[in-house]
Amino acid sequence: MKIGVITISDTRSFEDDLSGPAVVNALREAGYTNFATAIVADDVGQIRQAIRHFAEECNAIFTTGGTGFSPRDVTPEATVALLDRRADSLCELMRLKGLDHTPYSHMSRGVAGTIGNTLVVNLPGSPSGATQGIEALSAVLVPILSNLAGDGCPVGPDGADC
């Protein structure tokens, strides 16, 4: 089980990125241990290239950043063009659970869906919003990844199955 985490930012580097590591830490708390990480600019081409690359090797991809309303926030547009199937309910779940923490949770325009057998989810760019998004999805990640694996058997974070 490999999880890709892509930070999308024009200003962050691996030295000062807080959101990507927050996503990895939240996923570690959920039991996942194998990660690929990247940082790309708020650029449709770069975002798509990173998602395509990770979709070849990862069971799930979480992006963080670029989901708001500023002109440079293009993550949803870059992502949706790559999806085979949308999973709008996942982002709605994150936004609804986010209301427990902030009245601004619906300012995230993130999308979710699948590329082949890989789950792709856009998370907010703030470390707290990204972490809360993972927490909101944690109960459904195992069954979703199991279904995408096609075996109908629950797949745990460590890759163990029935």
The CATH class is identified as Alpha Beta
Q: What is the level-2 CATH architecture name?
A: 3-Layer(aba) Sandwich
Gross morphology is: globular
Rg from alpha-carbon coordinates = 14 Å
- The sequence of SSEs as H and E is EHEHEHEHEEH
Q: What can be said about the biggest beta sheet?
A: 6 strands, mixed
How many E-type strands? 6
Strand order of the largest sheet: 2-1-3-6-5-4
Give the tally of structural domains: 1
Count of DSSP H/I helices: 5
Q: What is the arithmetic mean of pLDDT?
A: 93
What is this structure, in a nutshell?
With 162 residues, this protein is α/β, with parallel strands linked by helices. The protein has 5 helices and 6 strands; from the N terminus they run E-H-E-H-E-H-E-H-E-E-H.
Question: What's the arrangement of secondary structure elements?
Answer:
Layout: E1 3-8, H1 19-29, E2 35-40, H2 44-55, E3 60-64, H3 75-80, E4 85-86, H4 88-98, E5 112-115, E6 118-123, H5 127-149
Parallel strand pairs: 1-2, 1-3, 3-6
Antiparallel strand pairs: 4-5, 5-6
Keywords:
alpha/beta; 39% helix
What can you see in these coordinates?
- This protein has helices spanning 19-29, 44-55, 75-80, 88-98, 127-149, and strands at 3-8, 35-40, 60-64, 85-86, 112-115, 118-123.
- It has 162 residues and is of the alpha/beta class.
- It has a six-stranded mixed sheet with strand order 2-1-3-6-5-4, with helices on both faces.
- Helix 1 links the parallel strand 1 and strand 2 (35-40).
- The two termini are 15 Å apart.
- The protein has one domain: MoaB/Mog-like domain (Molybdenum Cofactor Biosythetic Enzyme, Chain A, 3-Layer(aba) Sandwich).
- Helix 4 runs antiparallel to helix 5.
